[in-house]
Design a protein that fits this description.
heterodimer; A: 788 residues; alpha+beta; 19 helices; 28% helix; B: 160 residues; 5 strands; 34% helix
């Protein structure tokens, strides 16, 4: 689709170079740890070596004897102000600092305040804590056994480790279809605990100005406004009032969901600043970040799929145990404790489905956040794409043909899924066909057959995913009661320059460029004359932030609507200046002109000046607009990925030979940025598929607590991603856009696993849990009698 | 704690300081000199966000004591731009969309600054191995490889 604007204006469809890059390329970004204030103190945290233990005594005397150590803060100190517990986003409770008991290894136990980063670390070493270890619960299945120790003894009357039961769908209709099914398949699928590991860890600088009574916190947050409200709710009783709280989210070094929650460190830093009146900096190191910050996934899934012998799918049934650690600190919309997991019917036209999830407490860090995905959609996609592949193989059908047969057809949109979602638009067959053409699917299948005959292992895996993003419509979506709208505020200055502010917060997505392109598209101001600002709650309009791919579906829509309000007023001003009726004006990017007389025109810049100098009598001066956008529906980006792997018979090593990704995210704002998002998302799909996992031993010791053994893909393992696209606009989004930041992370793992299982199916392999390490494959090969 | 004097040339300027022997080079650069372009991403020398060039070789400044830099020369990301002109690598990252959040970028640039001086006509595979000690969570590396190639070509053409 050709752009409507010239490259000089740079509206939608242009690969405009990023406005944020010049500062980053010069090392002049401003990340939280770059913030330094006069008299600033440093906070460091003492963490528990035990996964479950009673705290018998905390002796701070040796720490306090170190010159420069000013205080050691414990749970008992915070208890005096009733700040030792805080609510989670899921209305559970989480310790800020413990008073008597620790619940996971690396939990915050005490905090040392000092004049210098190094002295604070010395202080941490010198705090002596006497623990009495308690029995540890690591396995969520064992956590539900009658004799399991009850972990949440703080909850009155709590007699087990069960958090909640949630189910969705039509159980009876699903069971009946299973009873009638000609063929069924069933697999246990574990989607392990992983960690987003943004290269920048979390941290903050809290500054309480005692004179003005104002708290300013520079912090690594993806949702600054929500954080401000949470701080006001949590600390209102000690005098923090929302109009005197300013959250500033400066440049952020990657978020991916890990910078949505409120971590204890933030709260302790704020408390320390309020008590001392001095700025306090707290910055995690990598091990703290990996070991204590919110995890993702950790779903123990049993999935069943029913169908007919001709390959027609009929029903899906899923039961899941969700390991939440010691508290449910997920970041899901309030009504959906398992997030949007019930989009698990995926791209297929099923008659019925039923899904059940049970949340469980264990002695592990809290969380249940997304890992670059929209509220558990990766778990959903992984399950259905694995199961579809198992069914296709079981029936002896080609995996692509099987998918084509069962896809929701283009004419069925808007499509009501068996689990009640209304998919906005899609053309799944076109995306899969394009991916097949790009990869040379039929030739690859021939090559695979030849290789198999020679005893060589080659696999082709498909993942045809449907995403669900843009939370969300106020009818169903809120966090702590706050509806999940988002906002744009646009002001046009007299000289024809624009400042625009948003309730979202970029963490690398390039909002400073893409939002400017939307304004260029709608109003014709060149991208270079638009300044985009986010992340300062004193200046930006209220919004719920950037996660779950919601910036484009929600805030970009707000931007377009605000632009259209401005354009309506601009038209009136133009009509006045041109002495014409506004209905007699036409628009082309950057100017209104009288129909049939293109010379009689007013540029948007001339109109901007007139809005302040020569506006029509009776009209308010100025040219600005605000919009709080409540999306009528979610958006449903989709795509088809095809992965080709070669497996070494001797070592089990998996080599990704090709990976073709066809994405459809509706209309595209900046093709360069969209492709970059897909590259990154694919790599964050590769990591969990082959390398990333966090495990615990029986005592609750973390086994992958640093980058020594929590393996992120490097450039060497990462393939040269091949991307392509189809475009199916969203019918309800003002720009026809859908969002794209997470599609690839959601869709990629299943393509990789399906390729590996495809290579090994003839050896009796039906499923392999991620991460598929060489060791796992090696063992399967040996068990099947394959010799290298 | 006792301090020791050091003299270091940073981006062409002589710097003298009295520092604790345990002070890491990355903290010396970031906090003593306020050169905050060099970032910290891990504690184990894996991520490479803190990469600077020490006497022509890329080092992870979180794993070097500042005293080890005494009498030596350091180039940081702030030293790449010359006379208001971006280094070809900086330009390459801009043109090829080789950065997103920007946090790993200074380390990626400094690794490349040293690498391309040794090899200004690399294969993609050589580049991928050269940056295997620098982790990026945003870009998927494809465009970083392109940015290196862009810079290598400019450097060959310009004789830089």
């Amino acid at each position: 689709m050709a752009p409507k604007t010239s490259p000089e204006i740079g509206g939608m469809g242009h690969s405009v170079k990023r406005k944020e890059d010049p500062r980053f390329l010069r090392g002049l970004g401003n990340y939280v740890d770059d913030v330094t204030l006069p008299g600033m103190l440093y906070l460091d945290i003492v963490r528990s070596p035990y996964a479950h233990a009673t705290i018998k005594n905390i002796d701070s005397s040796k720490a306090l004897a170190i010159p420069g150590v000013l205080a050691v803060i414990t749970g008992k100190d915070l208890e005096k102000y009733n700040l030792h517990w805080m609510p989670t986003l899921m209305s559970d409770t989480q310790m800020v600092l413990p008073v008597d008991k620790v619940m996971y290894q690396a939990q915050e136990v005490a905090a040392v305040l000092a004049t210098d980063r190094y002295i604070a670390a010395d202080g941490v070493e010198a705090v002596e804590i006497d623990y009495d270890p308690l029995p540890v619960v690591v396995d969520p299945k064992k956590a539900l056994l009658p004799d399991a120790p009850v972990l949440r003894t703080d909850k009155e009357g709590k007699k087990d480790n069960h958090i909640w039961h949630w189910e969705w769908g039509n159980r009876d209709a699903t069971d009946q279809l299973f009873n009638e099914a000609e063929v069924t398949v069933k697999e246990d699928i574990y989607i392990p605990r992983i960690h987003v590991s943004s290269i920048e860890t979390c941290g903050c600088v809290a500054h309480f100005d005692k004179v003005r009574g104002k708290l300013t916190v520079w912090m690594t947050t993806q949702a600054p406004h929500a954080i401000r409200t949470v701080f006001a709710l949590v600390a209102g009783h000690v005098g923090l009032s929302e109009e005197k709280i300013q959250i500033i989210s400066p440049d952020i070094g990657g978020g991916f969901g890990g910078k949505v929650p409120v971590y204890p460190g933030y709260v302790i830093a704020v408390a320390a600043s309020v008590l001392t009146g001095k700025p306090v900096k707290w910055i995690e190191d990598r091990m703290e970040n990996l070991q204590a910050d919110s995890f993702a996934r950790d779903y123990h899934i049993t999935a069943e799929l029913a169908g007919k012998k001709d390959g027609t799918l009929t029903a899906l049934r899923i039961k899941t145990l969700a390991d939440h650690g010691y508290t449910d600190a997920a970041a899901n919309p309030s009504k959906f404790p398992a997030g949007l997991f019930h989009v698990c019917t995926g791209s297929y036209d099923l008659k019925a489905a039923h899904v059940e999830v049970d949340g469980v407490y264990t002695n592990k860090p809290p969380g249940g956040i997304a890992y670059r995905c929209s509220f558990r959609v990766t778990e959903a996609v992984h399950t259905i794409e694995r199961m579809a592949d198992v069914m296709a193989h079981e029936l002896g059908m080609d995996a692509a043909e099987f998918r084509m047969k069962n896809f929701i057809k283009p004419e069925q949109f808007p499509y009501k899924s068996a689990l009640d979602w209304e998919y906005d638009s899609g053309n799944y067959g076109a995306a899969l066909q394009l991916a097949m053409d790009r990869v040379g699917y039929n030739e690859l299948r021939k090559e695979q057959a030849e290789k198999r005959a020679r005893g060589e292992l080659m696999g082709i895996g498909i993942s045809s995913f449907t995403e669900i993003v843009g939370a969300g419509p106020s009818k169903h979506f809120d966090i702590l009661g706050i509806k999940m709208f988002d906002s744009a505020e646009i002001r046009v200055h007299p000289t024809g320059k624009v400042i625009a502010r948003f309730g979202t917060k970029s963490q690398g997505q390039g909002h400073e460029t893409t939002y400017a392109q939307i304004i260029a598209e709608e109003l014709g101001f060149p991208v270079d004359s638009v300044l985009v600002e986010e992340g300062d709650t004193d200046t930006a309009p209220y919004g719920l932030g950037t996660y779950a791919s919601r910036s484009t579906p929600v805030a970009a829509a707000a931007c377009a609507i605000a632009c259209r309000k401005i354009k309506d007023k601009a038209r009136k001003i133009a009509a006045y200046l041109l002495e014409a009726h506004e209905d007699d004006l036409d628009w082309e990017p950057g100017k209104f002109f009288v129909k049939g007389s293109p010379d009689r025109a007013q540029t948007i810049q001339q109109i901007s000046l007139a809005a302040y100098t020569n506006h029509p009598p009776g009209m308010e001066a100025g040219l600005e607009a605000v919009n709080y956008y409540d999306p009528p529906n979610l958006t449903y980006p989709f795509g088809s990925y095809i992965c080709v792997v070669d497996i070494d018979n001797g070592t089990g090593e998996i080599k990704i030979r090709r990976f073709v990704a066809v994405d459809d995210c509706g209309n595209i704002i900046n093709p360069m940025i969209v492709e970059g998002q897909i590259h990154g998302g694919l790599t964050m799909g590769l990591g969990p598929a082959l390398y990333e996992e966090i495990q615990y031993d029986e005592s609750g010791n973390i086994l992958q607590g640093s980058f020594m053994n929590y393996l992120l893909p490097t450039a060497v393992e990462t393939p040269n991603w091949e991307t392509d696209k189809t475009i199916t606009p969203s019918p309800h989004h003002p720009l026809g856009a859908k969002g794209v930041g997470e599609s690839a992370t959601v869709g990629a793992p299943a393509a990789i696993v399906n390729a590996v299982v495809d290579a090994l199916w003839h050896l009796g392999v039906r499923h392999i849990d991620i991460p598929i390490t060489s060791a796992k494959v090696w063992k399967l090969l040996r068990d099947a009698g394959v010799r290298g | 704690m006792a301090t020791v004097p050091i003299k270091v040339n940073v981006n062409g300027a002589e710097q003298s300081a009295e520092i604790e022997p345990r002070l890491l080079l990355v903290h010396f650069l970031r906090e003593n000199l306020r050169l905050t372009g060099t970032h910290i991403g891990c504690d184990t020398s894996h991520c490479g966000a803190c990469t600077v060039v020490l006497d022509g070789k890329p080092v992870k400044s979180c794993t070097v004591f500042a005293v080890q830099a005494d009498g030596r020369s350091i180039t940081t990301v702030e030293g790449l731009e010359q006379d208001g002109k971006l280094h070809p690598l900086q330009d390459g990252f801009f043109q090829e969309h080789g950065l997103q959040c920007g946090y790993c970028t200074p380390g990626m640039l400094m690794t490349g600054y040293a690498f391309l001086q040794e090899n200004n006509d690399p294969t993609d595979d050589e580049i991928r191995h050269a940056i295997s000690g620098n982790l990026c969570r945003c870009t998927g590396y494809v465009n970083i490889v392109k940015a290196y190639q862009y810079a290598a070509q400019k450097m060959r053409e310009g004789g830089a």
